[in-house]
Backbone:
C-alpha cells in the first residue's frame, strides 16, 4: 500500500505500555507451544474475554523494551494513523454522496500490551475491537505481527483491512445499526445472538470492501489478495480448526472464511452501502 505523502489522522490516541516493560517474546508464550497459543487466542477471539493473563503465565520474565521494538511500534503507529486518515476521507465522501449525512470519524487508540476501555480490557489477546461506548477503536500494535506470523495473513494491506473493519463498526454505530443489534442480542438466546453478530461482522467486512474500492489509487499489486486472504484466515471455521476444534456453526460470531471474503468482495465490487445489508440477505 502506497502511503508516502498520506497525512496522519489526528484522531489517534497513543497509550504507553505500563512502564515501558514487556514480556520477552519468542517461539513460546508463557510456556505454551504454538498449538496452545492458538487455543488461547481462539478463546479470546470467540468470547471477547481478555486472555492476556493466560498468555503471560505466572512467572513470565520481563525485559526492558528494546529500541528495535520501539521503532517497530512507532512504525505501526504511523501506519495506523495514515490508514485511519484514508478511512476518514472515504467515509466523509460516501456519507455525503450516498447517505446525505455528515461523517464523524472515530478515535483510534494505539497501545502496546494492555489498556482499558469502557467495553473492558484491551490487549493483543482480545484482538482489535470497536467500543461504541466511547466511539473508539482499540489496536495493539503487536496484533500486526500476530496476524502475519501466527495467522498467515501478512502484508500491509491485510493490516489496513483490519483497521478498516473496526472503522466499519463505527460506521454501523453512527447509522444506528450497532445499538439496534446490541439491543436485539440482549433479548435473544446465545445461538440467536451469535447469528446476529455474524451478520453484523459480515456487514463490516462489506463496508471494508467499499473502503478498499475507494483507495485503489494507493494499492499495489497483490494488495487485494492480501485483504481477501486475511478475511479467510480470520473466519470462524478456519480459526476453530487451527485451535484443534471441529467447526461448530452455532458458536460462530464472525462468519466463515468463505463468507467473510465474499462479503468483502461484494463491497469492493459494488461500492454501495445499500449492498451491504446482511440483515436483509436470505443467504450469507
Residues:
Amino acid at each position: 500500500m502506497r502511503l508516502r505523502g498520506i497525512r496522519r489522522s489526528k484522531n489517534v490516541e497513543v497509550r504507553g505500555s505500563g512502564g515501558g516493560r514487556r514480556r520477552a517474546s519468542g517461539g513460546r508464550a508463557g510456556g505454551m507451544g504454538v498449538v496452545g497459543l492458538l487455543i488461547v487466542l481462539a478463546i479470546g477471539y470467540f468470547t471477547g474475554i481478555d486472555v492476556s493473563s493466560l498468555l503471560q503465565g505466572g512467572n513470565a520474565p520481563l525485559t526492558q523494551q528494546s529500541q528495535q521494538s520501539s521503532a517497530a511500534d512507532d512504525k505501526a503507529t504511523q501506519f495506523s494513523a495514515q490508514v485511519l486518515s484514508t478511512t476518514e476521507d472515504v467515509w466523509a465522501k460516501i456519507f455525503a454522496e450516498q447517505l446525505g449525512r455528515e461523517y464523524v470519524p472515530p478515535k483510534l487508540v494505539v497501545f502496546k500490551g494492555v489498556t482499558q476501555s469502557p467495553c473492558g480490557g484491551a490487549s493483543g489477546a482480545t484482538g482489535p475491537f470497536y467500543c461504541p461506548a466511547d466511539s473508539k477503536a482499540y489496536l495493539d500494535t503487536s496484533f500486526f505481527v500476530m496476524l502475519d506470523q501466527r495467522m498467515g495473513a501478512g502484508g500491509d494491506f491485510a493490516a489496513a483491512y483490519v483497521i478498516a473493519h473496526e472503522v466499519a463498526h463505527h460506521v454501523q454505530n453512527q447509522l444506528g445499526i450497532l445499538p439496534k443489534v446490541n439491543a436485539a442480542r440482549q433479548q435473544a438466546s446465545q445461538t440467536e445472538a451469535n447469528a446476529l453478530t455474524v451478520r453484523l461482522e459480515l456487514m463490516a467486512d462489506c463496508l471494508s470492501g467499499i473502503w478498499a474500492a475507494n483507495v485503489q489509487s494507493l494499492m499495489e499489486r497483490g494488495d487485494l489478495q492480501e485483504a481477501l486472504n486475511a478475511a479467510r484466515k480470520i473466519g470462524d471455521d478456519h480459526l476453530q480448526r487451527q485451535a484443534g476444534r471441529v467447526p461448530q456453526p452455532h458458536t460462530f460470531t464472525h462468519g466463515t472464511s468463505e463468507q467473510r471474503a465474499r462479503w468483502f468482495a461484494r463491497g469492493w465490487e459494488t461500492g454501495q452501502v445499500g449492498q451491504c445489508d446482511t440483515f436483509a440477505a436470505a443467504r450469507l
